[in-house]
Amino acid sequence: MTLPLEPPDDTEIWRYTDFARFVMLLNERKLWFSKLKALHPEDPYEGYAVAEKAEDPVPLLKSNTITLSPAQAIHSIAGFYVSRDVNEAAELVYVNSWCMGVESIGMWDLYGAKGTGVAVKSTIGQYKTAIGKDLRSEQQRYGCVRYVKNLESCPDLKFDFTCSTVPASGNLWQLLLKLSFTKRSAYEHEREWRAAVYQDRNPNPGVHMPTDLDALITSVVVGPRASSLELDAVAAVMKMYSLEKPLQRSKVLTRG
């Protein structure tokens, strides 16, 4: 399967949000990773993949109606559970998304409270340094989202573990994580870079990851449609939480 592209560490990334979420970031000092399943209202293809549904071998083994060697039985059982996890990757993978490159008025409108919110600027290298280190390396992955016209016809997203090698443990986690880096071309305008983490099944819509904000944040930008009062509020909150980073108002809608 194609690996997600990993740009240079000095690549600039933006996180657009509203004022309330910015305050919560400073208060909790944690980044929110959304379960892919929780993103389905915005994109029902998040975490899309198709694995041939291997038949559960356990009932057959108990019935004594078939004869399998120990190696065949192990492969059959492993293939069944791995194919299930691939088909249900949206329940196991969580992502935190950023926008690469220059400032985007489109992203302000979509995610930055119609241009009255707040954007955090960082770089990929700073992000990797700042994010929590509680997970094993094989349970996390970073990279650009690649965009394809039709996910359902993408060969990288089709699997058949009934006749191929069944990945185990860390290799399976990495396979599931990779599934979160392919989206439809309809979302190409987002220029998305994301971090993905693997978590065992649980009912939560997301997880908070401890983050060193001083290492993460390059500067803070208030939206181009924000008022002076909103700019002052952001400055006050940054002072309250001892975030000593440059603060500026966006000039994306300012001429000259």
What is this structure, in a nutshell?
The chain has helices spanning 19-28, 57-63, 70-87, 105-111, 124-130, 170-178, 213-216, 228-240; strands spanning 12-17, 30-35, 50-51, 93-100, 118-123, 140-144, 146-148, 158-159, 182-184, 192-198, 206-210, 219-222, 247-249. The chain is of the alpha+beta class. Strand 12, helix 8 and strand 13 (247-249) form a beta-alpha-beta unit.
Describe the model.
This protein has 256 residues and is α+β, with helices and mostly antiparallel strands. It has one domain (12-249). The chain contains 8 helices and 13 strands. The strands form 3 sheets. Strands 1, 2, 4, 5, 6, 10, 11, 12 and 13 form a 9-stranded mixed β-sheet that branches. It starts with 11 loop residues before the first strand and ends in a 7-residue tail after the last strand.
Question: What attributes does this structure have?
Answer:
8 helices, 23% strand, alpha+beta, 256 residues
